[in-house]
Amino acid sequence: MADDLLSYIEDFVSYMRSERGFSENTVASYRRDLLKLAAYLAKKGISLDDVNLETLEDFLKFLRKSGLKKTSRSRLVSTLRTFFKYLVVYENFPKNPAELLEIPRKDLKLPNVLSEEEVRALIEAPDTSEPAGIRDRALLELLYATGLRVSELLSLRLGDVDLDEDVLRVIGKGNKERVVPFGEAAHLWLERYLIEVRPEFAGSRSGDYIFLNQRGGKLSRTGFWKILRKYALKVGIEEGRVYPHVLRHSFATHLLMRGCDLRVVQELLGHSSVTTTQIYTHLDIKRLKEVHRKYHPRS
């Protein structure tokens, strides 16, 4: 039965990759979670047919005692629900024992965001008398203008940009496509980069990716992170407040603080559920409380 379970796991991850369009990182995460289950069942001598709700609850308790974080356990519950639902629908499994599993409640962790003044300083930090500085300015302008995930930004190709309409075609999580607008400043620096710098950087291995490193390859996440940290250090933003998605989080928070509708922000960010976007309303409320405490005469 252990071999059957391993076979089901491989069939499931193949389905999630080819039919559902999930990324390799997500598929690998599913596989790791399910291999933990397979190892646990083998150790306990429990067959797949005998798995019930209590079995899965004991499995989660075991992982909690082993030190698995709450966020990882929440993801694992989601994996188990999806896996057993797949078995019921596609493998004629008689029941979904994970259906009633409770997801551990996440502690609300608010991401750090930069003020509008800090964002402006960060974006204006590159030395635009240098080709790399022009690229970096275009990179930061576009990221803050659109709120893209870093992976989405670095995956942009020349055909994804419409400079006449000032919009991007973005392929996000789950291969979902969305159209995201950008403003005048991002247009100006992106156009300048594409005309003056990208042809200089481009080489035989550039493909049609927009953002390139100086050796002509696609700019990597590591390369982007070095760029972001360099300019944050230059303008005096504490290192602990800067992380790859800081401009995405700042983008969303600043829009809401200026009165943008939550559903519009959800669409721009590419969130499938508005619940994910609602964390930024907490940031907005937090900021309002800070302002109230600072300026109200009786606070």
From TrEMBL:
<dbReference type="GO" id="GO:0051301">
    <property type="term" value="P:cell division"/>
</dbReference>
<dbReference type="InterPro" id="IPR050090">
    <property type="entry name" value="Tyrosine_recombinase_XerCD"/>
</dbReference>
<dbReference type="InterPro" id="IPR004107">
    <property type="entry name" value="Integrase_SAM-like_N"/>
</dbReference>
<feature type="active site" description="O-(3'-phospho-DNA)-tyrosine intermediate">
    <location>
        <position position="280"/>
    </location>
</feature>
<keyword id="KW-0229">DNA integration</keyword>
<dbReference type="InterPro" id="IPR013762">
    <property type="entry name" value="Integrase-like_cat_sf"/>
</dbReference>
<dbReference type="GO" id="GO:0003677">
    <property type="term" value="F:DNA binding"/>
</dbReference>
<dbReference type="Pfam" id="PF02899">
    <property type="entry name" value="Phage_int_SAM_1"/>
</dbReference>
<dbReference type="InterPro" id="IPR010998">
    <property type="entry name" value="Integrase_recombinase_N"/>
</dbReference>
<keyword id="KW-0238">DNA-binding</keyword>
<dbReference type="InterPro" id="IPR044068">
    <property type="entry name" value="CB"/>
</dbReference>
<dbReference type="GO" id="GO:0007059">
    <property type="term" value="P:chromosome segregation"/>
</dbReference>
<protein>
    <recommendedName>
        <fullName>Tyrosine recombinase XerD</fullName>
    </recommendedName>
</protein>
<keyword id="KW-0131">Cell cycle</keyword>
<dbReference type="GO" id="GO:0006313">
    <property type="term" value="P:DNA transposition"/>
</dbReference>
<comment type="subunit">
    <text>Forms a cyclic heterotetrameric complex composed of two molecules of XerC and two molecules of XerD.</text>
</comment>
<feature type="active site">
    <location>
        <position position="245"/>
    </location>
</feature>
<feature type="active site">
    <location>
        <position position="248"/>
    </location>
</feature>
<dbReference type="InterPro" id="IPR002104">
    <property type="entry name" value="Integrase_catalytic"/>
</dbReference>
<keyword id="KW-0159">Chromosome partition</keyword>
<dbReference type="InterPro" id="IPR011010">
    <property type="entry name" value="DNA_brk_join_enz"/>
</dbReference>
<keyword id="KW-0233">DNA recombination</keyword>
<feature type="domain" description="Tyr recombinase">
    <location>
        <begin position="109"/>
        <end position="293"/>
    </location>
</feature>
<dbReference type="InterPro" id="IPR011932">
    <property type="entry name" value="Recomb_XerD"/>
</dbReference>
<feature type="active site">
    <location>
        <position position="271"/>
    </location>
</feature>
<dbReference type="GO" id="GO:0009037">
    <property type="term" value="F:tyrosine-based site-specific recombinase activity"/>
</dbReference>
<comment type="function">
    <text>Site-specific tyrosine recombinase, which acts by catalyzing the cutting and rejoining of the recombining DNA molecules. The XerC-XerD complex is essential to convert dimers of the bacterial chromosome into monomers to permit their segregation at cell division. It also contributes to the segregational stability of plasmids.</text>
</comment>
<dbReference type="InterPro" id="IPR023009">
    <property type="entry name" value="Tyrosine_recombinase_XerC/XerD"/>
</dbReference>
<feature type="active site">
    <location>
        <position position="149"/>
    </location>
</feature>
<keyword id="KW-0963">Cytoplasm</keyword>
<keyword id="KW-0132">Cell division</keyword>
<feature type="domain" description="Core-binding (CB)">
    <location>
        <begin position="3"/>
        <end position="88"/>
    </location>
</feature>
<comment type="similarity">
    <text>Belongs to the 'phage' integrase family. XerD subfamily.</text>
</comment>
<feature type="active site">
    <location>
        <position position="173"/>
    </location>
</feature>
<dbReference type="Pfam" id="PF00589">
    <property type="entry name" value="Phage_integrase"/>
</dbReference>
<dbReference type="GO" id="GO:0005737">
    <property type="term" value="C:cytoplasm"/>
</dbReference>
